Amino acid sequence: MKTQVCIVGGGPSGLMLSQLLHLKGIDTIVLEKHSREYVLSRIRAGVLEHGFAELMREAECGERMDREGEIHEGFLVSDNGAMRRVDLHRYSGGSSVVVYGQTELTRDLYDARDRMNGKVVHNAEDVALFDLNTDKPYVTYRDGDEVIRIDCDYVIGADGFHGVSRKAIPKDVLREYERVYPFGWLGVLSRTKPVSPELIYARHERGFALCSLRSQVLSRYYIQVPLTDTVEDWSDDAFWAELKSRLPDEVAARMITGPSIEKSIAPLRSFVAEPMRWGNLFLAGDAAHIVPPTGARGLNSAASDIYYLYHAMVDHYAKGDDTGLENYSAKALARVWKAQRFSWWMTMLLHTFPDSIAYDCKLRQTDLDYLFSSEAALASLAENYVGLPF
Ligand code: FAD
Ligand code: DHB
To answer: Average pLDDT, whole number, for the chain?
Structure first.
């Protein structure tokens, strides 16, 4: 088989790029390791920044998001029981975020690819990348006993943190920066009315908690748990009791509980791989960088990679201009590191660290008190949360 751009990974990054390039007449093939059902069963991001929502519209996939997604102009922060509000709209100069689940957004992208006869191969096994540093790169995958080869101009590594693309960059070229946090998030999805119309980020001495939502009948809650915990350690009852204990009494009192329809633990990690281009391989999204979920930046960082790559590819194919491709890694990394800084800061601010000394605890408290006493600090938080410009 032959294509212009072979995209490894059928998550939001890969599908979005495929859809955008298709609309500009550029041919792509997406290779996804798992089945569509599996990809759509993963419950992940819930908060989309303005720039991501714009990209969905440009990809002609924004119709349901605009209909069913909720615009949020602020969120709440609870500090050991005391609640304060961050007015995103006011402090970001009129911006906001969209609450719309990654599952729904991925479904919309798959539907669009189907509508346009896009080539998305599911259950592509043993994907391998070859001759990336030449002008004739190719990718192979296995379908049963058959090995299929795809010749292309460019390979996009959009296969997430555990994918194969990043590993195809030689060790003496690739530099990895990583921080692993000593806890994870236990997440529960339940068919219940959300406890609050706006998200609540709760700091508590027992650990962090987050009250989020997917719709007015679907709640998403998280609690910080030790890395040694497993999902089996947490019955639904134990989860609800622990969540309530970390929230202000009046919020806990009105919490509607119910059976979990999904329960999973995500470890928290900060990670960046540099460079994001090697030869004719370009990394995008979680394949190149991971943030702890606290600042809701992960998918949103993927969006800027896709935006830069999309424009770079269009410039290459339509105008023969390779400036965008040449600058891609430096440009993408500049924004990626800002999202890293913000996510790290939100994580440090709101979580309980098992190895904190008294000095660290005092500083964390001072940081939070300063935030709510300073218009400049609130403006900085709001600017980052709604998303820095691409
Ligand atoms: P992925 O979604 O990981 O997609 C990669 C795809 O590649 C997968 O489908 C995988 O099956 C496939 N693949 C892997 N290996 C191979 C291979 N060898 N061959 C072929 N295919 C392969 N972000 C936000 O912006 N806002 C939020 O509110 C938010 N909340 C989050 C909450 C949680 C609990 C978690 C875990 C994450 C959250 N994120 C959030 C982060 C967000 O989900 C990710 O950043 C996003 O999924 C990245 O998309 P991606 O397409 O780059 O990677
Ligand atoms: C969600 C996840 C986040 O990491 C976050 O900061 C906000 C919301 C969510 O899954 O709803």
So the answer is: 96
Q: Which of 98, 222, 291, 386 to mutate to test the pocket of ligand 2 (most atoms within 8 A of CB)?
A: 222
Q: Is the confidence at residue 44, as pLDDT, over 90?
A: no
Nearest CA to ligand 1 atom 37: 44
Q: Per residue in 253-307, pLDDT tens?
A: 999 999 999 999 999 999 999 999 999 999 999 999 999 999 999 998 999 999 9
User: What sign has the CA pseudo-torsion 132, 159, 171, 174?
Assistant: positive
Which of 32, 34, 35, 44 has most ligand 1 atoms within 8 Å of CB, for mutation?
Answer: 44
Query: Model confidence over 216-232: pLDDT tens digits?
Result: 999 999 999 999 999 99
What whole-number distance in Å separates Cα of residue 43 and Cα of residue 62?
Answer: 20
Q: Is the CB of 128 under 6 A from ligand 1?
A: no
Q: Is the pLDDT of residue 43 over 90?
A: no
pTM for the full predicted model: 0.96
Q: Are 165 and 287 in contact (CB under 8 A)?
A: yes
Taking CB atoms and a 6 Å cutoff, what residues make up the pocket around ligand 2?
45-47, 199, 212, 220, 293-294, 296
How many angstroms separate the alpha carbon of residue 291 from the centre of ligand 1?
A: 11
Q: Does residue 81 have a pLDDT over 90?
A: no
What is the rounded distance in angstroms from the CA atom of residue 380 to the CA atom of residue 371? 9
* DSSP label of 94: S
